[in-house]
## 1
Amino acid sequence: MSMKKAKVLLIGWDAADWKIIWPLVNSGQMPALKSLMSKGVYGNMSTMNPPYSPMLWSSVATGKTPDKHGVLGFIEVNPDGNGIRPVTVKSRKSRALWNIFHNQGLKSNLVGWWPSFPAEPINGVVVSDKFQKVNKDPKIKTNIAKGTIHPDHFTSKIRDLRMFPHEVTDAHILPFIPKASEINQEKDASLATFAKLLAENTSVHAAATNLMRTTDWDFMGVYYDLIDHFCHAFMKFHPPKLAAIPDTKYQLYKDVIAGAYRYQDMMLERKLELIDKNTTVIVMSDHGYESGHRRILKMPKYPAAPALEHRNFGMFVAAGPNIMKAKKVFGLGLIDVAPTILHMFNLPVGRDMDGKVALEIFKETNEVKYIDSWDKIKGEFGEHMSDDDHLLSDKETMQQLIDLGYIDKPDDNVEIAVLKTNCDIKHNLARVYLGKKDYEKAKAILLELVDKDYPVYKESSINGKNKKVLERQGFKIGDSVVDKIPFYMDLLKVALSEKDYNLSEEYLKILRTADKRFEINTSVSEAKILIGQGKVNDALKCLEQARDKNPNSLVWFQIGKAYEKINDLENAKIAFESAIKFETDSAKSHSALAKILYELKDYEESVDHALTAIELVKYFPEAHYTLGQSLEQLGDLENAKKAYETAASLKPKTFYRAEAAIENIKENLEANNCFRDKSEYRYRENQIVIVSGLPRSGTSLMMQMLSAGGLDILTDKNRTADHSNPKGYYEYNPVMSLHKDNTWLGKAKNKSLKVVAPLLKFLNPEYRYKVIFMNRDLTEVIKSQQRMIGKNPEVLPTKLFQAYNKHLKQVEVWKNKEPGVELIYINYKDVIDDALTIAHKVESFIGLELDKQDMMACVDGRLYRNRV
């Protein structure tokens, strides 16, 4: 894989979600992204906890989790401790991709990345996230602050590319809000919000395309917050209409979100026009955004509460000279992006990076090279050397974070503002450790936070400048300035994870006696405690009350776990299926359902849900283990062994059950399955010639050949020829009920009859059978079947693959144990490529002379569609 001319364009669409994208792509409203998908790979991108954008995009840039890279929220404390500010690049303590490229002599451009201010002095151009932030008041001039752009002299070249909210006209507004003229702007500030967000992202786009046209670069990263910020402002109006939304508001703003995606696609289209054939393009998001029934109209008073609407999966699309084409990929995470891009440039990956190279996206791969840590290498990396921290105040960005609800308005008392910010940063770090299941580190931070005595709000504070803000947040005189409820909520999670149910009960009591500002629903936690204490029936009563009040995926999942505990598998199955209906991309629900289905001996369905869980979250050892169990029961020992091995490799500790399963498989694994003919190659009196195979495997063609060769066919001709089978189907209706009634088979003596593979085992043993079993590449079979029923032939259902593999194995077992059955396998491709040889084989098998020339004449290679 040559990397000499490699270029990579990384485009970040904050909060872009497949649930919105797919309908727009399928209806032709996002042609640029659609073209990229057809040329490359696409799939989910899993996010991390907590899903706060500056933390996540820093993980994208470094390949590391926030505890390592150091960006831990939306705001940070000034180095002198005398105030707070929006998070800056100086919080990042790990080197990003562009620092590494600088060291390696490569040129990078960076536009709008969050955070990237103050601009780092790398080899290339940085237009930081401060560039597009302007004052919405046209009377107030917004200068470009020092540190916004690197190199400084580039400022004069692009300063005029900024768009201001007052420059947004009806031509910009109407494609998003066709009825904008009906808005009363004195009472509704939505148009002002719209203009600000549109102007900012247009500024980012203008700077990015300018750099693409006028500078040389090897790597370029561009970040847009358009979709995320539009969603926070307008998602509540997106279809389907929520009951609480007034119809007048819905009619005004229902098209805004789709408009944001279309505009993002238009900007992508322009970028694709500016790249060459050697450029790999990646478009991705850091998380998704709720667009259905889980949208929140009344935001709870949690810290950074709007992030509650962030979905666990974003999107990922990549295309380029060495990227696979039109392929769906699975299990990607944010931390995998940086290692994968380093690999594209043939550079080593840091062993201290948490992510892995996504080798599955490449056509050809080199062996991944490693280095202990890029952070330990001495040399020039284009990093900040001075401490001009007085430059970093940013009122516009701070106000936007407040407007979006990501942060509360800072307290006028600087000491309290700093204290709250330090607590938020520590809490976010604890949540990172929770996400990594490092419970000891999480617990140590959380206990420190709850054990500390904090100042309380006095009457002067409650009735001061921040009176309205504090009232909205629910604070009153005597309340601690730092609310401990969020810390206790996470301590409860830790105690439950460690199965310390007595401690969990203590934390639950504290939460229930605390102030109700946070509107906590503790039913699920209570049920977990009851289950842990063996009080399953009490847990079910608690959960059923919660379900009746507010049915959701989390409650249904816990109901399933309760039923599983008492071995009520059928009710557990219903509960997990209900959880999936509420949240289709819940990996844990799919994995739990797969486990129940295995216990119920529904191995095919179990495989399907285990694979779905793995597709959503690749690093899921329990799902891999269940997959191995079900595949083993289906007889697919080779793939079962791989699943067990994967499960064992993903567990941080030895996975003894998986290790034992691997040992058993190795002992029992036989040679590769071999489909062998079973035939005496002679005519038998009153024999019945059966043509069988999987659907769309060439059975109709073989029936036509036998008819042309002179053999009588048993068919009622009820099913006429069509586009999928232009020469006819040769079917006989009673075959469909063969499993109920096989007494009519005497009518087929000395004739040929078509029977699908799953029904072969119901053939009446009274007769002798000559079975011609048609084989065809399973991918071709399923593509043909998908096209026949009007579905996308490129989307191949896992369940069908597993079911068809099972049928093939069952046929092999069946023909060996049935003394009245002789069977030969005929490959569909061989019929197309060498019909005469196949005609000779069939004639010999049946034991009757056939007209082989007429049989050959039936074969029309033009009908061989869906060839792999």
Note: The chain is about 45% helix and 10% strand.
## 2
Amino acid sequence: MKIRWPFISQTRDREMSDEMQFHIESKTRELMDTGMSDADARLEARRRFGSVLKQKEAGHEIKAGRMFEDIMRDARFMGRGLRRSPGFTLAVVLTLALCIGANTAIFSIVDQLLLRPLPYPEGDNLVMVYEARSSNSHNSVSPATWLDWQRDNHTLDRVAAWTSGGAAILTGAGEATRLGVQPVSAEFFPLLRVTPLLGRVITEDDDRPNAPDVAVISHHLWQTRFGGDRNVVGRFIQLDDTPTQVAGVMPPGFRFVFHDIDVWVPLQLDRNAPWREAGGRFINVVARVKQGTALQTARADMEQVARRMASLHEFNKNSTARLVPLREELTGQVEASLVVLYIAVGVLLAIACFNIANLLIARAASRRREIAIRTSLGAERGAIVRQLLVESMLLALAGGTLGILLARSSLDALVAFAPPALLRGQELTIDARVLLYVAGLSVLTGLVAGLAPSVIVARRPIVESLYASSSRVTHSPRIRQLLVVGQVAMTVVLLCGAALLVRTVTALTSVNHGFEQQGLLTMQVSLPGTRYPIERQVAFQRELLTSIRELPGVDSAGAASGLPVIGAPRAGTRFHRYSTPVVPSTQMSSATIRVVTPGYFRTLRIPVLRGREFTHADDANPTPGFIVNQAFVDRYLPNVDPLRESLMVRMRDENPYAPIIGVVGNVGEGSMRAAPRPTIFYSHSQLPLGPTLFVRTDRPVATADAVTSVIRRMDPNLVIRNVRTFEEAVAESLAQERLTALVSGAFAVSGLLLASLGLYALLAFMVSERTREIGLRIALGAHRGQLTWSVVADGLRLVAIGAVAGIAVSLVVLPSLGTLLFGVQPHDGVTYTMVLSLLVVVAALASFLPARRAARVEPLTALRQE
């Protein structure tokens, strides 16, 4: 039967036009019967009828008002019905609240990080610019290259330089505090188009070499350390024991790339220095694409500039310029995880909609005769369908309202457990955008959940419903079975995806990184360069390590320039072998650089394969030599005795050749997922260390306190941070992977629970419908075990169909997890087998409960039913 929806205004307008034309024609005929001509009669009829447009507007208002009244009356009527079924209502509202709340929480993060504009005017025009080489598409930039880009491009408004900087110790006003520092060029703040809250930003005069030291501070630092004093501008503060004048204060929330930066200082590069000869590549570049210029056009322009530079300078050969939108740079590490979670929670909501649709179909089935009687007495099908949709909308809106409260709690939990890299210091709130999203999602959920029962009611013949036995209200079993199959299929996809992510975390935590992680205490100590030149650093580290080794429970101690595996060592540094012909620097090989103290390899229990490790006797030697790892030997010295080779590494102004004195085992660098890199180890007497301490101990808590006391006695103004075991550091580095696996796993388990409940509800409903049939079969001698198995088999048959569909979908969509996986393939047979085994067990349990009820049917009781 065709249903005319009251919201289709064009149909209503056409109906009113036809009706008004009928009245005008009737009046015209009456006037013609009195002797008037056709034209006069038609004109008089129109005059007496009045304005057709006004009549239409009045009709629309009457119909719209009546429609609103009908909807409100339906809402009151269906609300009373829901109150009479509190169990049903509570189950549906809670299910929707949990799913909508989870969806809202994930959407809040996705909206904040991926959808909203960047916090800079016209931020979508900002790009990061890298020197792309064959070995690294995101290489740092030489100052010479940056200056050439700035001068020769035709598509960029401004091109600014900055470095990740590091840290500085703030002293002189309270306890010494380590602050994140970001050196930037004078073009930086004008490029971002962000004005300071107080004072000024860094200017060209500040950015000259040897200019007076100035700094721009963050709003957070201004509030927490200086109490929001508006007279802070112009005041001198002590950064690394250097008097630095505060030039300005940035507005609240201002950050660039890193969320823990509180101070911006001038980069102060000498723009006339011969950077191509000795400077290397060490700066980062951000640029703004000119308004109206496409990104592809800017890329082509910069590639042309890079080709021209490569033709002029040996230094720039085999390199080009790579432009990456700033949004992509900021969200690249978290976008995949967020998209996966958002899709997963969307699938969970779809499972909930299918489940609730099944419940609403059953509810409509129990009211089938009532609906049929109302229809036979003159109720329109459209009005009944509208009532069913209003009922589902009431449930969805109630679930959405409760879901907002659950979303707030979920956000608090996510903020508490999420790593800083995932949220990038953003404050997550439920604002008007999110509330609008919840409203739309609730309406959509209500429509989807209420669509199936509404269609069934609209298509159901009245006579069949009136003559149906009240004890047999079979109501579209195929649609209900299809809904269960759909739930199972989506659940299988969720389970397979979550299982792959869980196995990824397991694989990452079980990788052998080449050293012993257990019993290894780590901490970082910042040594200000002004008070600790290289000679004093060496002496301080030697004294400190000697004192630590004498502590009770300490087996050994050492230090390095950062954490292995999860740290960020200097990569891509050029070197030359003494035994090979001299080549231009652009043709030299590159390796990762790590600075270590004596005792480092022993403390981490990294095996020394050949030669020896550094000792304190090497501290006085200006060229103590290098230690390399086995990956370096395998790549660069495959048929050479490494202990007979000398290297020149381009790390300083003067880089003499020095021998390789040892070869050590491979240790991962820079990533839990990456293979070991060729690495060259410097002695701490050659390069500043800024040490990360490593202490081998069986009492990490007590030893941490003791080591901290030793450092405080040596220098009470030093900042000690990140005191933790290496296992804790690894766990923190995997926080994003763990959170993704945990949340997706929770969604998958919730989907499994909903699907099993849907299967149970369907089979229980079917058993209740077949009570008389089951009783008759038992009375005729049917074995109760056969009846139990027949019901279980019906359930498992539906699950099997859904599982096959789910596996097929998983094989197609799960390869898109891509870089999120490690140590497991998207088509991993073991994972799929585990998921199917779990599904069979849960499905069998969900099927057995109604099957047991069927087997317990008493024949006499069943046969007495109407």
Note: The first helix runs from residue 9 to 33.
